[in-house]
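Suppose you are handed a protein chain with no further information: no name, no annotation, nothing but its sequence. What can you learn? This example shows the usual starting point.
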Amino acid sequence: MAGDREQAGRVSWQLRLLNRVLHRVARPRLKATATPAAAAADFARFARLCLRRPPHLLRLVTKGAPDIHWITAGPVARRGVILYFHGGAYIAGSPRTHQGMLGRLSALSGLRVAAPAYGLAPKHPAPAQFHDAVAAHEAMLALGYAADEIVLGGDSAGGGLALALLADLCARDLRPAGLFAFSPWADLGLQSESLRTNAARDPFLLAERVDEVVGYATGGFDAADWRVSPLSAQFDAPPPVRLHVGTTEILRDDARRMEALLHRSGGTVSLCEWPEAPHIWPIFDGYVPEARAALRDVAEFARGRIAETEGRPGA
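A reasonable first move is to predict its three-dimensional structure. Written in structure tokens, the prediction is:
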């Protein structure tokens, strides 16, 4: 089926203000960050001090390889789960940094969110994250979730990780109910034109440091390998996919190219482009209306995909 590209509406004053803050504060901080450890510490501190959490947020941890963080914010359905992979360029981030956004997603969708604490580079270089993603999916199956009761999700590097897992699951006839991703980083080979055309327009990310981050993330592993660059993967009859990206992001064309690839693979895929939205803007839920709107959209998508399994025998 044909792809479906949309564009969100007018830019709010809150988003314009956020972009100014990111440009004047976050970009200089990213430029000055010296090591992956410093980047991880900065992200954790920022999330703890600045990112908002919904009422009734609950995060429980199941120990394993990897640990799974179960995140909810109110009642959830008995069946169905969102298996979500956090972003952070494979060197930073955790289920804790994303718990506010994921709690809101759970509340909006009425579904549990399972967020794996996958290993981070450079201590765990690629493809360790892919192996952790496969193990996390196997943990969902072991708990009794059917393959089509799982919706994959992710942002940035986590969005790319979810897409790589999708390719693997399609090849093994374990297709999930669907997949959504915010600002997916799907090509560590850095072939997307927006890395150049949006370099001066992106309010947050620094194009000049992406090569350096790829080196940390891969540790010498082939950056073109489909397990880290799912734009190199083959997708066998993929389930429906919903993608969101900002028009001024340096990673915009990763999402556009992924939309085209999934379309060629026979999938139903839709891409929503948000004017001037910064990288993974849904994490700023509670500050900008565009964040809540994007979360509502994917919550509706996830809930709808799970609802289609309700009439299946044994559900």
